[in-house]
Amino acid sequence: MSLPEHGPRDLEAAAPVFAALGDATRLALLDRLSTAGPLSITRLTAGTKISRQAITKHLHVLAGVGLVRDVRRGREHRWELKPDRLDEARRSLDQISHQWDEALARLKSFVEESPPSSEEK
Amino acid sequence: MSTDRLEKRLVLRAPRSRVWRALSNPDEFGRWFGARLVGDFTPGARVAAQLTIPGHEHVRFEMVVEKVEPEALLAYRWHPAPSDPALDAASEPMTLVEFRLAEVADGTELTVIESGFDRIPLARREQAFRRNDEGWAMQVQNLRRYVAA
Question: Does residue A96 sit at the B interface (CB-CB below 8 Å)?
Fold first, then answer.
């Protein structure tokens, strides 16, 4: 994906991604997929207390906002990350981060440049 | 790959007491932030704020104070986009902002953490910052003149 500018449209587009990320199970699924690569539902369900149906539902939520996709290998479905969408969400947060940097630079100037107040003496 | 929190750390060349005052005194907070604050930073209190940036005076927001530990920690919650008429403030989740201070050799180390983004529609959050930001460049110039006077 090549987005030269991060305009408000990108941010609007990113909002559903953040909503999809706002769930511990889905974040855990993304974490698994990002470290272990494409995995089948069976692999994703193994070792968890969550049902196969629930995992499938969460994967579809993530797929709905373009974070993961279902790849078929023969008869087996496997799920993999679509990193582009995650990058987009990260960029949106980077923009907020940048704005904090600017606000804190103003605070820095404020406390470093203001003369000692008379109350302090 | 956390999308839930932002963390900033910087050293301010000023005593901890000075930095604490710029944060905990609503009047001083407002001066660098660009808002008029009504209320006190005491735990559980609500501080009402209104931007003072020309053209943005209609923007009001509220900070719900969580923790106040003198010269160490100021924490509050706030809403992403206070001026959004579609916002149902009561039901909308807030992010938590924490300012932490520590004394270091050449001044005060400030750590700012904002967390809870994953529960917030991001576009709204961004709009709030953007609105604040437009007038800030001008506001900083005012500030510089103010402190240099």
Answer: yes
- Lowest-pLDDT range of A2-11, A32-41, A50-59, B44-53: A2-11
Residue with token string 């070792």: A47
CB-CB contact of B139 with B34 (8 Å): yes
What letter would DSSP give residue B3?
Answer: S
- What the block records as the tokens of B88 is 């149902």
pTM: 0.57
The answer for B39, left when phi > 0, alpha when psi is -120 to 50, beta otherwise, is left
Q: Measured between CA atoms, how close is A74 to chain B, in angstroms?
A: 32
Among B78, B115, B126, which would you mutate to test the A interface (most chain A Cβ atoms within 10 Å of its Cβ)? B126
Burial (CB count <10 Å: 0-12, 13-18, 19+), residue A68 = buried
ipTM score of complex: 0.71
Q: Tell me the CB-side half-sphere exposure of residue B127, using CA atoms within 13 A.
A: 18
DSSP-assigned states of every residue in B52-90: -STT-TT-EEEEEEEEEETTTEEEEEE-S-TT-TT--TT
Cα(A111)–Cα(B5) distance, integer angstroms: 26
Query: Bridge partners of B7?
Result: B113
Quick: pLDDT tens for A92-105.
667 678 767 877 88
- At A106, which amino acid appears? R
Listed residue (A117, A104, A119) closest to B147, CA to CA:
A117
